[in-house]
Amino acid sequence: MASRAMKFPVLLALFFVLGSLCGCAHGPGAPATSGRVVVLTGASSGFGRGVALQLASRGDRLVLAARRTELLESLTRECEQRGGRAVAVTTDVADAAQVARLAEVARREFGRIDVWINNAGVGAIGRFDETPLRDHDRIIDVNVKGVIHGSHVALRQFRQQGHGVLINVSSVTGRTAFAYQASYSASKHAVRALGAAIHEELRANGERGIEICTIFPYAADTPWWPNAANYTGQSPRMILIDPPGKVIAAIVRATTHPRREISVGWKAKVLHVFQRVTPTLTEWAGGKIAHDQFVIEPPPAPTGSGNLHEPGPIGGIDGGVREKIKFEDAAREPDGLRDGG
Ligand SMILES: NC(=O)c1ccc[n+]([C@@H]2O[C@H](COP(=O)([O-])OP(=O)(O)OC[C@H]3O[C@@H](n4cnc5c(N)ncnc54)[C@H](OP(=O)(O)O)[C@@H]3O)[C@@H](O)[C@H]2O)c1
Q1: Please, what are the domains in the chain?
Q2: Cα(116)–Cα(148) distance, rounded to whole angstroms?
Q3: Ligand 1, atom 42: closest residue by C-alpha
Q4: What is the distance between the alpha carbons of residues 239 and 15, in angstroms, rounded to a whole number?
């Protein structure tokens, strides 16, 4: 009787030891869920900031990149308070040498890279020909070349290690081109194509320990909107804008459950289905919505190149777009309606 009672705790201990060993294994389909080394671009605001805080709570070791050093440094402290370890590396992803240095810091500090997230991105809203060429160039430099720079260093490292997860943040505009966001849509289509091609290369070479995942968020309320370049002369808005937490949760989940492509939320999923079934109609409807939301509906706003060439003023996770829309709509309502009369 006594020996049976002894056996149970021993078996239990064995179970836990084996369980934790399996949990730590890096290999096909079994990425570790904590203590990983994660490089994250675009960490200073929006989705990136939210993802960093959540991964830190899981005990991950983070290498955080963006241009705004002060925001990165305060985020680093917040991550460490949550139990993670974090290093801030001021980086402009459009510069390949700076991205190479980012990878170098990750290797020097933590010895390997388990997950690389290319999240940094910028955009411009406006008629194609009224948006300066310099701004179109910059969108391609940051959103396309930046993702190529990050993916290149990440994959070289992953192939040396035999494992790794690469996550690239595209957008619904990466499948459905939106009016007034021509270069942005083109850049996000490129991010999708890049991911699909790399995925096939990995499959063709049987490199099952390396995963690549492209994320397609619908419009979400982050500083992307107030910081974007704007040449419409109106303050942009978007219908049914998502809370940023939805996208942050999807990116965090993709670090442990990567899939080739992930559409975030029902709006992105429905758009994807419509785009496949009837692309012309979907793009026409998107164009009508964009014209309405960017040109007809909003009140006037100053034009300018936003955060394309210099970092923008707005940090944090929430961009205040939903609040702004509520405020604008309330201001537009006739007095009687506003008073409930
Ligand atoms: N919010 C949306 O509606 C939405 C929808 C679909 C997809 N996305 C995509 O999601 C990603 C994250 O955007 P977000 O919504 O979280 O907006 P956000 O708050 O503006 O975040 C963008 C991040 O990218 C960084 N960044 C910009 N240019 C950079 C550069 N040259 N080098 C390094 N970092 C740079 C910004 O930091 P610094 O300025 O400090 O460099 C910031 O941390 C972007 O790729 C965006 O295109 C957004």
Answers
A1: 31-336 (3.40.50.720)
A2: 12
A3: 42
A4: 51
Q: For the chain, what's the residue count?
A: 341
Q: pTM of the prediction?
A: 0.90
Atom of ligand 1 nearest to the CA of 228: 20
* 181 close to ligand 1 (CB < 6 Angstrom): no
Whether 3 shows a pLDDT value over 70: the answer reads no
CA 244 to each of CA 200, 266, 267, 311: distance values in angstroms, whole numbers, following the listed order: 31, 14, 14, 20
Are 319 and 236 contacting, i.e. CB atoms less than 8 angstroms apart?
A: no
Supply the residue whose CA is at minimum distance from atom 5 of ligand 1.
219
| pLDDT of amino acid 341 | 34
Give the list of residues 6+ apart from residue 284 with CB closer than 8 angstroms, or none.
none
How far is CA 241 from its chain centroid?
16
- Write the residue with the smallest CA distance to atom 46 of ligand 1: 121
Whether ligand 1 lies within 6 angstroms of the CB of 142 is answered as: yes
Element of type H or E holding 261: strand 261-264
Q: Which ligand 1 atom is at minimum distance from the Cα of 315?
A: 19
Question: pLDDT digit string (tens) for 150-189?
Answer: 999 999 999 999 999 999 999 999 999 999 999 999 999 9
Tell me if 268 CB under 6 Å of ligand 1: no
Say if ligand 1 is within 6 A of residue 317 CB.
no
Catalytic positions, written as ranges: 184
